[in-house]
Amino acid sequence: MEQVTAMKQSTIDQKPSIYSLQLQELKEWLKENNEKAFRAEQIFDWLYTKRVTSFEDMTNLSKQLRDRLESAFTLTTLKTIIQQQSSDGTIKFLFELHDGYSIETVLMRHDYGNSVCVTTQVGCRIGCTFCASTLGGLKRNLEAGEIVAQVVKVQQALDKTDERVSSVVIMGIGEPFDNFDHMLSFLKIINHDKGLNIGARHITVSTSGIIPKIYKFADENMQINFALSLHAPNTELRSRLMPINRAYKLPDLMDAIRYYINKTGRRVSFEYGLFGGVNDQVEHAEELARLIKGLKCHVNLIPVNYVPERDYVRTPREQIINFEKTLKNHGINVTVRREQGHDIDAACGQLRAKERKEETR
Ligand code: SF4
């Protein structure tokens, strides 16, 4: 294992990804290199509208500028290792990064369009007890460009059928607020009208509850959708499911959520995974209703897939319906998330965990 790690580190390419740059940053780089600033928009057009795969293809730029770009930046930062398609159209991608680590990205099909779920870290250190992504710990943060490149890669796959990525959810592997600056940079690039031009209201970020970053995010006042992985209606149960709750306790977390709602005027989504016999009883639904009473919010109930490395089992269908009904009786907006990709390792981190097991055999 030590040898593998050493080899991975020695192959790290030091050049930054061009997808990490905001339009303004690219303009500044061009000026420093005695090039006209308007070239930045041409380059963005090649990157995000024409979606070329080499600097050489940027044919309205001089050869000298293409060579400069080539020596300063990387363009192809992700290599597709696996592309698995489910019977419902969901596609899971396993990408290899320049240093040999692998990450997952998922394309989901909805009536309202194509949604991409991106990864923000290699692994995760949050330690949620139901999550396969945390098993190997955190290896490193992704650069903004590595997150942007996931959306570009999926869009390139969709280009073949003339389809478009219409929404993005930051709910893949990793805790986005643990990689806050790169996540913010990513959001700005995909939202920019000269970038991927994905509307703010079609972007959702989800956190496990890093309180200081919730305040910081609220102060950014971006009009994107915000979700909290709640999963439990009280401190004791939440600490059991999500160790982060020991550092950032539920009452303080709810204060941060109230701050976010007041500051942005936006609704919060509470993600609530249903774990058989753990947090899925009617009493839990009653307690949850009391916890979020009066908040501008919505609850997403997620019947959790069985995770082979963990002990959790699925909640029976009837129990899901009872839970939903209880919340509705309290006037709470609630939906049960439709499962996607059930036949292709759909839970967060499963594909990567499986790969890792095979790698280490
Ligand atoms: S659920 Fe999300 S935050 Fe929790 S361990 Fe998994 S990847 Fe990290």
UniProtKB/TrEMBL annotation:
Residues that coordinate or bind S-adenosyl-L-methionine: 174-175, 206, 229-231, 305
EC number of this enzyme: 2.1.1.192
Source organism superkingdom: Bacteria
Domain (Radical SAM core): residue spans on this chain: 110-343
Catalyzed chemical reaction(s): adenosine(2503) in 23S rRNA + 2 reduced [2Fe-2S]-[ferredoxin] + 2 S-adenosyl-L-methionine = 2-methyladenosine(2503) in 23S rRNA + 5'-deoxyadenosine + L-methionine + 2 oxidized [2Fe-2S]-[ferredoxin] + S-adenosyl-L-homocysteine; adenosine(37) in tRNA + 2 reduced [2Fe-2S]-[ferredoxin] + 2 S-adenosyl-L-methionine = 2-methyladenosine(37) in tRNA + 5'-deoxyadenosine + L-methionine + 2 oxidized [2Fe-2S]-[ferredoxin] + S-adenosyl-L-homocysteine
SUPFAM superfamilies for the chain: Radical SAM enzymes
Cofactor: [4Fe-4S] cluster
Listed CDD domains: Radical_SAM (cd01335)
GO BP term, example: tRNA methylation
This protein's UniProt keywords: 4Fe-4S, Cytoplasm, Disulfide bond, Iron, Iron-sulfur, Metal-binding, Methyltransferase, rRNA processing, S-adenosyl-L-methionine, Transferase, tRNA processing
A GO CC annotation given for this chain: cytoplasm
InterPro entries attached to this UniProt entry: Aldolase_TIM, Methyltransferase_A, RlmN_N, RNA_MTrfase_RlmN, rRNA_lsu_MTrfase_RlmN/Cfr, rSAM, rSAM_sf
Active-site positions on this chain: 104 (proton acceptor), 348 (s-methylcysteine intermediate)
Signal peptide: none
Gene Ontology MF term list: 4 iron, 4 sulfur cluster binding; metal ion binding; rRNA (adenine(2503)-C2-)-methyltransferase activity; rRNA binding; tRNA (adenine(37)-C2)-methyltransferase activity; tRNA binding
Binding note for cofactor: Binds 1 [4Fe-4S] cluster. The cluster is coordinated with 3 cysteines and an exchangeable S-adenosyl-L-methionine.
Binding-site residues, [4Fe-4S] cluster: 124, 128, 131
Protein's cellular compartments: Cytoplasm
Function statement: Specifically methylates position 2 of adenine 2503 in 23S rRNA and position 2 of adenine 37 in tRNAs.
Record-stated family: Belongs to the radical SAM superfamily. RlmN family.
Database matches in NCBIfam families: rRNA_mod_RlmN
Miscellaneous notes: Reaction proceeds by a ping-pong mechanism involving intermediate methylation of a conserved cysteine residue.
Protein name per its UniProtKB record: Probable dual-specificity RNA methyltransferase RlmN
Gene: rlmN
